Amino acid sequence: MMVWGQSLSELFMKAGVTRWPLFICSVIGLAVVVDRGAYFLRRYCDAERFYQALRGRLNDKGASETLGWLKGLRHPLAEIALTYLRCRAHPARQSILSREATRIVARAERRLGGLAVIARTAPLLGLLGTVMGLVEAFYQIQHASGNVQAQMLAGGIWEALLSTVFGLVVAIPCMIAYHGYEGVTDRLTQRLQATVAILDEFYGCQDKERGCLD
């Protein structure tokens, strides 16, 4: 289409007064997407490999050396396992683990709320810009002293609709990224629970072998 033959800056300047709030939303949204992506990449962990390594070290080297190994790791599963081993004999172990897991998940979800706000607000800003543009276009037509041309009406409408286009362009990637990162944090929660369950099972079996449990 001919309209898309114009440069992005030309289209942007015709997008109405809400173009600048949308631009700010796009910058913030991009920053959050990059920040959370870098966070999850830095703390990526192959869960199954970690579980196998954790069981192997506990069996072969015991809890004290496993603690040293976990301290050198930089991912959430190691953090929850480290907390478990440190507070295994504590009477409030479950509360401590729950608090630590909540802290880990909250850290992973940081700034995702802002991304959701942008994803929901950008289309509304675009729609607001479109409505304001249409109001302006019809106002000019009303004061055109009867000399109304189709080009005048069509030109005002398509320029007004650019606000909605830019609003959706900002909102759609932010919404996709938000749901993608929410899925990652959901899987993280499940893996934290699995790590605790594996340690419970390991020490439960050990206690049974030692006759500590019936």
> What general form does the structure show?
rod-shaped
Calculate the mean pLDDT score and round it: 86
Q: How many angstroms separate the termini?
A: 77 Å
Please state the structural category. Answer: mainly alpha
Uncertain parts: 208-214
- Major β-sheet annotation: none
How many separate domains make up the residues? 1
Radius of gyration: 28 Å
β-sheet strand percentage: under 5%
Counted by DSSP, the helix tally is: 7
Helix content: over 70%
The count of DSSP E runs of length 2 or more, i.e. the number of strands, is 0
SSE topology string: HHHHHHH
Folded structure, characterized:
The protein has one domain (10-208). The protein contains seven helices and no strands. The protein has helices at residues 8-13, 19-42, 47-71, 76-86, 93-108, 112-142, 150-209. The chain is rod-shaped and about 90 Å long.
Describe the structure using short key phrases:
mainly alpha, disordered C terminus
Briefly summarize what is shown:
The chain is mainly α.
Topology, please?
Blueprint: H1 8-13, H2 19-42, H3 47-71, H4 76-86, H5 93-108, H6 112-142, H7 150-209
Helix pairs in contact: 2-6, 2-7, 3-4, 4-5, 4-7, 5-7, 6-7
